[in-house]
């Protein structure tokens, strides 16, 4: 492939308490794809994302972002964690959370100013949440909270976006709104990687897919590898989905 | 001494002034740093650290042979820190959950500390008397240098807090995201934990090992009820803590034999109870009132919506209709009609009702709102 490689994962193995969660993963993700990571519960999807982000230390293997370790490249990567990973009763507003997306480029100690606030407001507008900017975050619905997380990542204006189940618990309208933003990101040449659960929508939403179940089953363009054979290998049972091409 | 006497003496009497200032500053720093413990869901950490400090006090006494409070506090600081790092180590290296690790270290260190205290009490050394004041604290032993130390530590932690405000805020909210932005979360974590340990250690003399964690948690828990902003919460927690200190000292000084530490803690607890009941946003009282009012409104809105559906089919929205046709609908009572009339949504004459312009507008808005929230 002639394209630039955005993320390369090399022999990655991660274990919690001696139980391997990811086993010897090799992965090359070309720049500019909109990729789904699919697999059953406990397949290590979130762990793979967190290992790429250097949040979890692997017992073997390495991850490179545009050819360099994550530590040197963190300003090129934006992360959308699972919605349930934070306490939404934290005393802060929607705008404040989105502003956190600017903290990385600010670096230590420096405070966000007007420029950062403007960027955060723009991101809020992009996800259709501008009118909720002063809302206490616990008073937002699940879908709105997810949009806030997305806006926080958008503010980072990175080249790579890693998202952990951004469609979890959102209604159809929000799902459409989010996928439109993801497609826009891809159009702008960004690499977007999404942990995804709804196999039915994979061909419609994504152009690249990785099947994962502790080991990597397959990775490549959706039109080439999204088939019953790989689904069965990943999910264990005879898993058939109707694929509309 | 009565409370009035206390407040007239507090500015002139050296001892009273020192103790009052000391407990106020202590309350403020504990409230401030306690907010972090509460928001990180590490409420028990303070309890474990304060209990872990006890053997350090005993060992420092055994080594120095004197009851110099600064030496003892350094001992407390060291064993408190050791306890903290053991807790972190246990959680990291074993399968045990953090509450188990906290409980384990708490009882282990406290048991060892009590053992050393009984050993010291049996020693032929006249000096040992009063070491057990660290169990429940004794504010009366505070001297001016102690208060200065508290002020300096409060000042330093305030400067650190303001310097790393943005980093602490994001760490408290979302630690994984903070890591992904390239911040050293380990450094931030150790920084904040160290300050909590220091705050606990300087409070031991006043409030004691056993009750110290309440000083951290109570003002923060009370403050959370009143605000949805992190800055305001920390500020309020400091104020609540300081007031608990002053009021506690006042109450205990004005009635003999009441130990200061427990009184301060009880007053801090009173702040919590009052906040849980009376705070406007999250308090139980207002929540009940809102709930009750909402139910009432809902009943009226149901009736109004039903009337709207009848009235909108007529050219003239105020066309009178018989009250009877509402009978099919269970939301209607004489009282609810009266209430709707009082709000000028309808007019009632005899057995007929008609919607007013205001009522029509209100009902239309009800529908719009519903559509908005359904979206």
TrEMBL record, chain A:
Keywords, comma-separated and alphabetical: ATP-binding, Nucleotide-binding, Transport
Domain of life: Bacteria
Matching SMART domains: AAA (SM00382)
PROSITE patterns hit by this protein: ABC_TRANSPORTER_1, ABC_TRANSPORTER_2
GO molecular function: ATP binding; ATP hydrolysis activity
Coiled coil: none
InterPro entries for this protein: AAA+_ATPase, ABC_transporter-like_ATP-bd, ABC_transporter-like_CS, Metal_Ion_Import_ABC, P-loop_NTPase
Record domain ABC transporter: where: 7-239
CDD domains: ABC_Metallic_Cations
Protein family per UniProt: Belongs to the ABC transporter superfamily.
Name of the protein in its database record: ATP-binding cassette domain-containing protein
Protein's organism: Leptobacterium flavescens
Phylogenetic classification of the source organism: Bacteria, Pseudomonadati, Bacteroidota, Flavobacteriia, Flavobacteriales
TrEMBL record, chain B:
The species this protein was found in: Leptobacterium flavescens
GO CC terms in record: ATP-binding cassette (ABC) transporter complex
Record flagged with keyword DNA-binding: no
Protein name: Iron chelate uptake ABC transporter family permease subunit
Family: Belongs to the ABC-3 integral membrane protein family.
SUPFAM superfamilies: ABC transporter involved in vitamin B12 uptake, BtuC (SSF81345), Winged helix' DNA-binding domain (SSF46785)
Coiled-coil intervals: none
Localization, UniProt: Cell membrane
Gene Ontology annotations of biological process type: cellular response to iron ion; response to zinc ion; transmembrane transport
Main location, first listed in the record: membrane
UniProt keyword list: Cell membrane, Membrane, Transmembrane, Transmembrane helix, Transport
Alphabetical list of InterPro entries matching this protein: ABC_BtuC-like, ABC_TroCD, WH_DNA-bd_sf
Pfam families hit by this protein: ABC-3
Membrane topology: Multi-pass membrane protein
């Amino acid at each position: 492939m002639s394209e630039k490689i955005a993320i390369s994962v090399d022999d990655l193995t991660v274990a919690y308490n001696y139980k391997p969660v990811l086993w010897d993963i090799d992965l090359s993700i070309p720049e500019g794809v909109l990729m789904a990571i699919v697999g059953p519960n406990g397949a290590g999807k979130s762990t793979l994302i967190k290992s790429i982000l250097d949040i979890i230390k692997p017992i073997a293997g390495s991850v490179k972002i545009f050819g360099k370790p994550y530590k040197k490249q963190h300003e090129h990567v934006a992360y959308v964690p699972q919605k349930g990973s934070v306490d939404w009763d934290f005393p802060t507003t929607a705008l404040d959370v989105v502003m956190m997306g600017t903290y990385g480029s600010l670096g230590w100690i420096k405070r966000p100013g007007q420029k950062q606030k403007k960027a955060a407001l723009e991101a809020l507008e992009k996800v259709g949440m501008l009118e909720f900017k002063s809302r206490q975050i616990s008073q937002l619905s699940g879908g709105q909270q997810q949009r806030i997380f997305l806006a926080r990542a958008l503010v980072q204006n990175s080249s790579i976006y890693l998202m952990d189940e951004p469609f979890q618990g959102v209604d159809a309208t929000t799902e459409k709104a989010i996928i439109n933003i993801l497609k826009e990101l891809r159009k702008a040449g960004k690499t977007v990687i999404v942990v995804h659960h709804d196999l039915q929508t994979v061909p419609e939403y994504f152009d690249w897919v990785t099947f994962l179940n502790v080991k990597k089953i397959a990775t490549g363009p959706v039109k080439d590898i999204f088939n019953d054979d790989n689904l069965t290998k990943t999910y264990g049972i005879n898993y058939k989905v109707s694929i509309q091409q | 001494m009565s409370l009035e006497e206390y407040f007239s003496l507090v500015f002139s009497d050296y001892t009273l002034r020192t103790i009052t200032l000391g407990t106020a500053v202590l309350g403020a720093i504990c409230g401030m740093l306690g907010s972090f413990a509460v928001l990180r869901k590490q409420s028990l950490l303070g309890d474990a650290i304060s209990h872990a400090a006890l053997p350090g006090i005993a060992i420092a006494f055994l080594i120095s042979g004197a009851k110099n409070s600064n030496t003892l506090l350094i001992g407390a600081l060291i064993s408190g820190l050791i306890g903290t790092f053991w807790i972190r180590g246990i959680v990291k290296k074993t399968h045990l959950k953090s509450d188990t690790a906290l409980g384990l270290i708490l009882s282990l260190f406290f048991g060892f500390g009590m053992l050393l205290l009984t050993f010291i009490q049996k020693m032929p050394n006249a000096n040992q008397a009063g070491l057990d004041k660290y169990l429940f604290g004794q504010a009366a032993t505070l001297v001016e240098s102690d208060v200065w130390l508290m002020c300096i530590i409060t000042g330093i932690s305030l400067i650190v807090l303001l310097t790393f405000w943005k980093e602490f805020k994001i760490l408290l909210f979302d630690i994984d995201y903070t890591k992904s932005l390239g911040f050293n979360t380990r450094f931030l974590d150790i920084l904040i934990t160290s300050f909590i340990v220091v705050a606990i250690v300087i409070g031991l003399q006043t409030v004691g090992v056993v009750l110290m964690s309440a000083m951290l948690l109570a003002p923060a828990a009370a403050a959370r009820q009143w605000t949805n902003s992190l800055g305001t919460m920390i500020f309020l927690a400091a104020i609540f803590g300081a007031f608990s200190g002053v009021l506690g000292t006042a109450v205990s000084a004005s009635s003999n034999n009441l130990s200061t530490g427990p009184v301060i803690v009880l007053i801090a607890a009173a702040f919590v109870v009052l906040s849980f009941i009376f705070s406007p946003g999250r308090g139980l009282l207002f929540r009940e009132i809102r709930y009750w009012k909402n139910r009432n409104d809902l009943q009226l809105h149901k009736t109004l919506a039903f009337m709207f559906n009848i009235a909108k089919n007529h050219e003239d929205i105020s066309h009178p209709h018989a009250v009877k046709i509402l009978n099919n609908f269970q939301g209607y009572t004489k009282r609810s009609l009266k209430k709707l009339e009082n709000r000028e949504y309808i007019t009632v004459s005899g057995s007929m009702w008609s919607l007013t312009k205001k009522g029509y507008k209100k009902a239309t808005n009800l529908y719009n709102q519903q559509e908005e929230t359904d979206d």
